[in-house]
Give the backbone structure.
Amino acid sequence: MNLDESQITSLKPGAQGDTKFVVDLFEAFLKADPEKVQAWQETRAASTPEWWREWEESQKPRRSVR
């Protein structure tokens, strides 16, 4: 998802440590178009390198079989 296509309007330069910035960003994410969010997630998943997927899989807790 491109930022200029999103509904996020409260991006402020230098606000990374600002709690209000984080809350505003989260609220904007919740209000975002679900189709755009899904498209972003699919694009992100498709661009994830295989080695990263393998590492993530190796980090999941294993269930014990009794």
